[in-house]
Amino acid sequence: MRLIIAASLILLAASPGMAADGKALFNAVCARCHGTDGSFKLKGKTAVQVETALEGYRQGTYGGPQKATMQQQAARLSPEDIKALAAHIATFQ
């Protein structure tokens, strides 16, 4: 599974413009664990909450039991990716 996620991230990084598409990035990288509608731990989060969490994972200052998994994912995200993901996730109600 890690190989699939890593390959998805590499493809996204190599595709100009795609990384800024929060929905496409979410579906390629996040949906496998969080569900396509964010039903696993993401519904109701604001963009600020998501950005704060992802930046914290990147810096190793945030997280619970799944910290290692999320740190690996967040480490590969650009600041633009994080903003795009946060904006998309904030649409989940």
TrEMBL record:
Top-level taxonomic group: Bacteria
Cytochrome c domain mapped to chain residues: 17-93
Keyword rRNA processing: no
Gene3D superfamilies: Cytochrome c-like domain
InterPro entries on file: Cyt_c-like_dom, Cyt_c-like_dom_sf
Signal peptide positions (record): 1-19
GO MF, any single term: electron transfer activity
Pfam families documented for this protein: Cytochrome_CBB3
Keywords recorded for this protein, A-Z: Heme, Iron, Metal-binding, Signal
The protein, known as: Cytochrome c553
Organism of this sequence: Nitratidesulfovibrio vulgaris (strain ATCC 29579 / DSM 644 / CCUG 34227 / NCIMB 8303 / VKM B-1760 / Hildenborough) (Desulfovibrio vulgaris)
